[in-house]
């Protein structure tokens, strides 16, 4: 087997530590060609679709890609910003802010971001970190709830990359943080901020991304972790069981997925006389197609058409200070034992670098 070429080794070079934020991914552009390329990579992952490869190849290339790519491209176009894909824009800002927060807390670490599907790709970013001298890498998935269809796929991609590398760095992975106090607090403050501006809703619907029901029966903990996130958030908000609902969106194909489904539930609530609903998507840490278009547009229309009067979508955590602080806490907890703390002089320098990172992130936000 031929391994990748190693960077030139320099004796005495200080080994660096990196935190790598990994999100799902996005097409490079809201075009049929770009979306087709993205969907092909995404739906070819056996973690995502557990159908025998020979059968699935014909379904994917004969039915899905030719017909779904154009429709999906139209949906992406409806939420695309002048800076590009919202998911990529938010993830980039989060990484920049996280670098600043960790620097202010006295940690000398590099922070980068990558996409499981699309660009910047995981192999590309891992190779860049190696060239930069990073010998310790913490992988931080953007998925609070673990699933074999998401988090485990990141593991696969990382291990596949390093199977071709001679000198493999130390690796750590954050598996999940669905019940982490700082994450729940960030969600709570997001909801309270929305209610302060818009009043309290009759129903809070917590919509998570769906997965096939069979994955639950086969031992995937995703469903249970979603339920725990919802329960903890409801407790923090002081909600009774009658005041909130847990639903699952983005069903694909004819197989049964986790229920109740989001769209039919919203229609049912409207027909029952519920005048207003607020919908939050706790499983998404960055706004994307599934939140901005599927919930903010399609689900809203479903509710209003069925007789509802007022629909509110509570945006994802994105760059909220409590969420970036929560990410920093997660990183700190998982960096324990690695030499990231600075001397007093180094810390002052890091603060200056952190300030520059924060200003850069603020400029990115202002340009949005």
TrEMBL record:
Q: Which PROSITE patterns match?
A: FERROCHELATASE
UniProt cross-references to CDD domains, sorted A to Z:
Ferrochelatase_C, Ferrochelatase_N
Top EC class for this record: lyase
Keywords associated with the record: Cytoplasm, Heme biosynthesis, Iron, Lyase, Metal-binding, Porphyrin biosynthesis
The listed locations are: Cytoplasm
UniProt-listed Pfam families: Ferrochelatase
Kindly indicate whether the keyword Acyltransferase belongs to this entry: no
What task does this protein carry out? Catalyzes the ferrous insertion into protoporphyrin IX.
- The protein here is known as Ferrochelatase
Whose protein is this, by species?
A: Paraherbaspirillum soli
């Amino acid at each position: 087997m031929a391994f990748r070429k190693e960077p030139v080794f320099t004796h005495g070079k200080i080994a660096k530590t990196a935190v790598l934020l990994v999100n799902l991914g996005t097409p490079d552009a809201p075009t049929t060609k770009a979306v087709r390329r993205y969907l092909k990579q995404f739906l070819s992952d056996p973690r995502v679709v557990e159908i025998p490869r020979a059968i699935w190849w014909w379904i994917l290339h004969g039915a899905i890609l030719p017909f779904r790519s154009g429709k999906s491209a139209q949906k992406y176009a409806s939420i695309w910003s002048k800076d590009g894909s919202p998911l990529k824009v938010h993830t980039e800002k989060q990484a920049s802010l996280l670098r600043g927060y960790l620097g202010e807390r006295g940690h000398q670490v590099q922070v980068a971001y990558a996409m499981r599907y699309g660009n910047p790709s995981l192999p590309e970013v891992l190779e860049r970190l190696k060239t930069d001298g990073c010998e310790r890498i913490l992988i931080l998935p953007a998925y609070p709830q673990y699933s074999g269809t998401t988090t485990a796929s990141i593991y696969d991609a990382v291990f596949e990359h390093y199977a071709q590398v001679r000198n493999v760095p130390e690796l750590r992975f954050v598996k999940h943080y669905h019940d982490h106090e700082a994450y729940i607090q960030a969600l709570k403050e997001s909801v309270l901020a929305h209610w302060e501006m818009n009043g309290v809703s009759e129903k809070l619907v917590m919509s998570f991304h769906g997965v096939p029901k069979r994955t639950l029966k086969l031992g995937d903990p995703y469903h249970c972790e979603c339920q725990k996130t919802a329960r903890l958030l409801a407790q923090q908000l002081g909600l009774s069981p009658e005041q909130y609902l847990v639903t699952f969106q983005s069903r694909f194909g004819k197989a049964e997925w986790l229920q109740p489904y989001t769209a039919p539930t919203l229609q049912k609530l409207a027909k029952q006389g519920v005048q207003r609903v607020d919908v939050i998507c706790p499983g998404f840490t960055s706004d994307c197609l599934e939140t901005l278009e599927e919930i903010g547009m399609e689900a809203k229309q479903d509710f209003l058409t069925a007789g509802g009067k007022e629909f509110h979508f509570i945006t994802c955590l994105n760059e909220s200070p409590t969420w970036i602080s929560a990410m920093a806490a997660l990183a700190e907890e998982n960096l324990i034992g690695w030499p990231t703390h600075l001397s007093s002089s180094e810390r002052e320098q890091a603060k200056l670098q952190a300030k520059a990172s924060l200003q850069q992130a603020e400029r990115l936000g202002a340009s949005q």
